Amino acid sequence: MSHRVPESARTDEDGPVRFTPVAGRIGAVAAGVRLDGDLADDVVALIWDAVLRHKVLFFRGQHHLDAAGQVRFARRLGEPMAAHPVLPPLDGHEHVLDLDGARGGRADEWHTDVTFIERPPKAAVLRAVEVPPHGGDTVWANTAAAYEGLPAELREIADRLWAVHSNRYDYVRVNAAGAVPRRPPSATAAFETEHPVVRVHPETGKRAILLGGFARSVVGLSDRADARALIRLFQEHVTRLENTVRWRWAPGDVAIWDNRATQHRTVRDFGDRPRRLHRVLIAGDAPVSVDGRRSVRLDRSAGSLATAR
Description:
Number of strands: 18
Largest sheet: 7 strands, mixed
Structural class: alpha+beta
Cofactor: Fe(2+)
Radius of gyration: 18 Å
Helix content: 10-25%
Strand content: 25-35%
Family: Belongs to the TfdA dioxygenase family.
CATH class of the domain at 7-130 and 249-259 and 270-283: Alpha Beta
Pfam family, one: TauD
GO molecular function, one term: 2-oxoglutarate-dependent dioxygenase activity
Organism: Actinomadura rubrobrunea
């Protein structure tokens, strides 16, 4: 589902909804809207257009939303997906993943959601249910700005590369400390997909880097150290501070982001204080490379992340 506003109508001051940027390259706060499933089509179009431009939008004070209302609103942006390919959904809500920090739902590595499947979600709607008085922020990075900021020589290399994304951990987590092997909570079922390192956005036409924590190897490179070095090189461009925005949650906050042009992670600095958020994913298409090829799923032994209805 795609909502587009005519170029002549696209300003941050139009209509009842206002969008105020909160960082130089990514993120805006929305005001003047109460999120629900009955929003007028033109308001939904303005919101979606702002998601495409700002990559992530923040809505304060949406206390009226519960899990069912969150899904009803998310459905205005596209078709909700099953909550997760392996993890169980929130009781009674097949589209909602309960990210409870007390049960390990911390997502504290840079990632684009669910890239280990052939058709990763196009967007996500995340709602704060309970948050600590301090700590537990989420940070997003603009992967399109990261690509644009690459030197021309590195863009040429990235355009040709493909990476294998998997939820297995001989999976490699790449961060400032280097490669750290860990076993994922979702190791009970294996998903493995080849994606282009640079994908062409299906709505904006812009190129963006597609990596993050689920990218564990580079197609055609048998040397693991070389693959890790390449992944780390491009990943560090994504997560440069200039490409990021950090959000301090309050109960009732909602974030909507373009999963095709961002990465994100939780800041794990809240200890054992309660932190609980609910996430709904919107179905997307298989990424397309610069030369027009589509992503390919490698492991057919696991089930699919079907669109739940």
